[in-house]
Structure formats: structure tokens, C-alpha cells
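re: that complex we talked abt at group meeting.

here r the seqs, copy pasted straight from the sheet so there may be weird spacing, ignore it
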Amino acid sequence: MKKIEGGVTAAKGFLAASAAAGIKYKDRKDMAMIYSQTPCKAAGTFTTNIVKAAPVKWDQKIVADSKGVQAVVINAGIANACTGAEGFGYCKETARTAAKVLHVSEDGVLVASTGVIGMQLPMEKLTAGIEAMAPRLDGSLESGTEAAKAIMTTDTKKKETAVEFTAGGKTVTLGGMCKGSGMIHPNMCTMLSFVTTDLNISDELLKAALSEVVQDTYNMISVDGDTSTNDTVLLLANGQAGNPEITEKNEDYYTFLAALYEVNETLAKKIAGDGEGCTALFEVKVVGAENKDQAKILAKSVITSNLTKAAIFGHDANWGRILCAMGYSGAAFDPEQVDLYFESAAGSLQIIKNGVALNYSEEQAGDILSQQSVTVIADIKMGEASATAWGCDLTFDYVKINADYRS
Amino acid sequence: MKKIEGGVTAAKGFLAASAAAGIKYKDRKDMAMIYSQTPCKAAGTFTTNIVKAAPVKWDQKIVADSKGVQAVVINAGIANACTGAEGFGYCKETARTAAKVLHVSEDGVLVASTGVIGMQLPMEKLTAGIEAMAPRLDGSLESGTEAAKAIMTTDTKKKETAVEFTAGGKTVTLGGMCKGSGMIHPNMCTMLSFVTTDLNISDELLKAALSEVVQDTYNMISVDGDTSTNDTVLLLANGQAGNPEITEKNEDYYTFLAALYEVNETLAKKIAGDGEGCTALFEVKVVGAENKDQAKILAKSVITSNLTKAAIFGHDANWGRILCAMGYSGAAFDPEQVDLYFESAAGSLQIIKNGVALNYSEEQAGDILSQQSVTVIADIKMGEASATAWGCDLTFDYVKINADYRS
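got the structure back, here u go
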């Protein structure tokens, strides 16, 4: 497997376009479209929030029943959540419009929305956007990058990545884009992410692979503990790489799984590192756990602790808050066995041994915590399992963005 | 029952004192002592965090085994948490010193600490503080108020309350003080609270009453989702009101329970309303629930949502975030049945009917949300049960306080 340039248009046969439809933002693109020249097998994972946005309900049905997906239509600015039957009708209308201009089946069109909850979509603008994008679809890396920019809301960076690997003697490409910055908390998946591949694989294994990979990637990030109404990860495979169809969990499947893990971990970390208002990516590794679930619960509890996140913002080695967050996580461990380390580009430092502070240098700890990516490693000395979670610091700007978001 | 002036010294036979021991803060009192002229029955509820501070471990043993509690020694500035065997030894030493100067038994002394995690207590200063306080003990309301001030950390207001009621023909007084502002999240109890009464009641019923009342009071508040290592509620009853001992759940018991609820709800709301950096008390009532547990889960999910809290700070009627937080709470309900109201001193306004926004006035909603105490009422139309939770808004100052706290 190797990392390559590009995103959602990296794989063979995938085109993208974007448009400024004026849905909410001024002077920027706010719609994107992904199109595959041939029908795709599709897998999706969606928010576990009971309050599901209309596009989530639409996509769940399409992913389960569709004979082949060919397009995804995405808008930023309005989430189409808490919009009742009217909102769901707009998903159908969006799909119908796209199906007409793209000459595909209505049940081959997925839709996704992100933005303010509770407002209805301005359908005239959306329709105009779709009609404008269709003739502009192309497979260049630039069009993928433009699409990645068009789906941003409070994001400050566009997020895309791609890899190449070999299956059945053929070169296969897997690439994706995502957006997400606030209302980010691990529970199934917590943002919009679109991953495309030219791999030839059975529908069943495509879905199995996505379900497995989201557990350790998107489900291990958090910005603010709020699980969104719109979270969606879509994975489309059009088979154009020409490899023999993968129909069992053989070596090719596991190669694909590793590539999918790489792409999704990269995208998930991009979301955590671009959390609303944040200044640092905050990574927590729990090692020496009895089992993976225990390690995950502990790691997630630390990255979601407001007090710990504020301490990271302050570059303050306030390790007591980390131990405290592990303690209320619900996972069992012995606090008096814990070793704790801080790590970043500025070095590595052990802070606690067997639950009690070492005589470490506060200055050195402050230096380590002043980097753009900061890691805490907690060794609980109970076994061999480990897990990693990704979050970000809690800053003035997070509060500012979210006190002002609708205005 | 009637509300009266005072706090921890309101009930007969309870004295208090405070001192500036210089443990961490300069130019302010940072130690307090509560003393009962006669031995008390004691009940306590403590943090569920696995990482328990040394004083929590000490008090759990005393409350379970003591033949009669006569004193509580409290310090602010250092939490004596994550301090290993050395820290636990300091609890014993504190109790021994207090027992000596007060001429009581060592196992009749409770201890409580609040402040920075991971530092050892400066025992010389603590000992000097205890020796200074003992001769100053008195039963005036002022000495209770001074004690309530001495136990503050990031609190901006001292917190005390008292009520009077009748049992067995005698006037009974119940009063308390508490502190708490950050690392506040409902799980058993989440701060330091000390409640005293001259009621005569059996040990068993005293403990039962406290356990019942904390569920709907301290366990329904949150400032930041972080369950502390030190959370402690202590309830002392010295019997000096002279009522016949309450030994069964009769009318007197339920009168006491109502008084205890009143005192603890008042104290709990004072904590939520003085949450670190906050500008408003944020109350959420869920009504029309199938059962109380469901109502509690929903109400707590909303008061702990960072996004909702930031919207309250921004006086923004961003009701989508409230519905979203209910949706990821884990409790089942139908979003399309929910009615939502905002309420405060500035009026009452329905925002949502059956899950969809009404055409309400944003200006009027903004006015309602600009008050110092703001209530959201969510009617889920499934039954008759209800619950209330209390939190606060998320502000720049919360981040500032917690990025800087140790320095």
C-alpha cells in the first residue's frame, strides 16, 4: 500500500463537481456531487442518534436496497434535520433531480446534508446547483479537492486522502474526503465522509469491511461529545480496477481492509485535528489493557473530558484530570498501577509511575504540550490490549464559534 | 417547613470555625471545621470515580463504622487525590490532631479536601490550622457563613441554606453548606456538601434518606461532565431537637425527607448556577415521560451538551442542539412527538410542536435566554413522569479558568 495524491476522484471512474448554490454561505461553494461512470456497490454507516436527519433515513434505505449507486449529492449550510415529512420529501426531490440530469436511476442517488438543524432546504437553489454541477463533472484531482472544500462548514481545512494497493494483480485505488469540526462524538460515525474505490468486491464484504473499520477510526474521535443527527460514512466501489471480485476474506480482502483503515484513520484524525476552535490534535493511547473494549472506554473518556481538553489548551501538565477522567469512565483498573507519559514532536516524558507523580520538569512537560499534535500514553499494566482515540483541545474559539453559529 | 437564615450552624448544637492556613491561596481563609457538641449519627454519599481521593476513603470507613461523629475538618486548595499511602496517612493525622484538640475520638472525625489533584498536603500548615480553629468554634450564623466561604475554590459565591420543620412536636432545624464549580457531573454526588440537623433519627433511616435525596438533587447537576475524585455529601444528625427518635418511615420521616430534599436541591442548584465561568443557571425539565429514569437520562443529556451550553451563552434559541442531545442520550422517544418551550423571568415561549419548529419570534426567544436563570421544558408525550436537571452555560471564562487553573 502506498499513499498517493488525491481524494474522492483518485479511483478510476469517479468524477466530482461542486457549485456555489447560495444555500446559506455567501461567496463560496456549498454543494458537491460525486459520480461514478458505472454503478457501485455501496456501504454506509450512520449516526446512532434517535434524531436522524432526513438524508440519513434516505441513504439507509438506498444502501440497503439499491441495485447500484451512481451519484452522491451533498450540501453544506443546512442539515435537513428535524424537518419532518417535508424534509424527507426534499431528499427524494434531490435524488429525482440528480437522476434526471445524470440519466441514472433515482434509487442510485445518495444525498447528504450538513449545517444548521431545523431549517428547510431552499429547493430551488438546490435544484439549480444540481443542474449546474452535472455538466461540470470531471475526474481530475482538482475537482475532488474542490468538492472537499465545498462540503466544509466550520471546518478550517479541506480533508482528503488516498492510497493505492494491489489486489488480484491489479492496481486498486481508494480515496476519500470528509468534513467535520463540531458536534463530533464517536458513536457509529460522526460527520460526513465519502470514500470511493475501483476495487471489485462483493456487496457483503464491502459492508463488512466498512463496519469493522469505523469502530477504530471515526468512532474513536470526539470534538465535543455531541453525536450529530447527520453522521454518515459512505463507501462506494465501482470495480473498475478489474481485479477478480473479492468474495471471501482472503489476502486481497485484508489488504483492502488495511487500506480502508489507513484512509479512514487519516480522515478521522483530520476531523479531530480540525475540531472547532482547536489548536492541537490530542491523541490518547491506552496500553496494557485486559481487552480492547476496556482500552477504548478509557481512551475515549480522556479525549472527551472538558477539563483535560482545557488543560491541553493551556499547555498545562494537569495529569490529575487525565487520571480522573479514566476513573469515571466506567472501565475497571487500579489507579495505583498506572504509568503516564506525554509525547510530541518536542520529546517524551514520564509523568506518573504507579499512580503517583514523578519529579518531572514542568517546563519540559509544557514544551511537549505546546506542539500541534500531543499524545498521552497510559499504561494500566493489566494485559496486552491497546486502543487509540483522537480529540482536540477546548478553546475560547470553540465557545465563540458555538455561541455564534446560527448568526 | 419554612426557609430560614443560616447554614451549617443553624441546627442546635452545631458550631463552626475557619482559618487562613496558607495551604495554597494567599490572603483568604482555606480551612473550616464543623463541630457538634454531642455525637452525631452520620450518613455520607461519595464519588463513584474509581480514582477516589484519600479523604473519601477515610470518610467511607468512618461513616460505616463510627460510634458517633463529632467533627469535620475541611481544606481547600489541595484535593489529596492521587496521593497514595502518604495521602491516606495525612487523613489519619488530620483526624488525630483534631481529635486531640477537640477531646473527641479519632474515629469521630471526618475529613474533606478540594483543590488540585496529585499534590501532597502541607501537614504543618494543616495542623496549625486545626489548632487555630478549635478555640474559635461557635454556633453563630456568621461562623457558618465564614466556613462556607473558606471551602470555596473556583466558586464565586458561598453556598448555604437552612429550613425549619416540626417532628414529634419539636422544632427541627436542617442546614447545610457546599462548594463546587468545576469537575461537576452527576454521579452519586459531585462536590463537597455538609448538611447538619438536630433531628433525632435512627442511623439506618438517616442513611436511607440521604441516599434517596441525592438521586434527584446533586446527581441531577452538571457543570462540565467531569465526575470528581473528591465528591462527598455528609449529613450529620445530633438529636438535640429532642423529638422522639424516628425509627420508621412515618409522617415525621417524610417531613424530614421533604426538608432534606429542599436543602439539597437548593445547594445543588447553587453549584450549577455558579458553574465555572458561567453566566446563567440552565434548567431542563423533561415531562410526559414513561418513567422517571427516562426523563432523567434525557434531561441530563441536554444539560451536559457542550453545544447546547454554548448556545445558551450566546442567547441563541438553537433548539436543534437540544433535540440532538436528547437523541443521543440513549433513552427512547419519538422526536416527531416532542414539544419544546423556553422559559425564564422574561416569559415563556413554545419553540417546537411535534418535533418541528413553530414560527416563533427569535427576538422574544433571545430575550428569554438572556436571563440569569433559563429553563427548557421538553414534553415527550409518552406518560406522566418527569425529571429536572440543572447545569450552566459554557463560556470563554470556563476555558480560561481551566486552561490556567494550576498556575
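couple things i noticed - Residues 2-273 of chain B form a domain with the L-amino peptidase D-ALA esterase/amidase fold (CATH 3.60.70.12). DSSP finds eleven helices and 15 strands in chain B.
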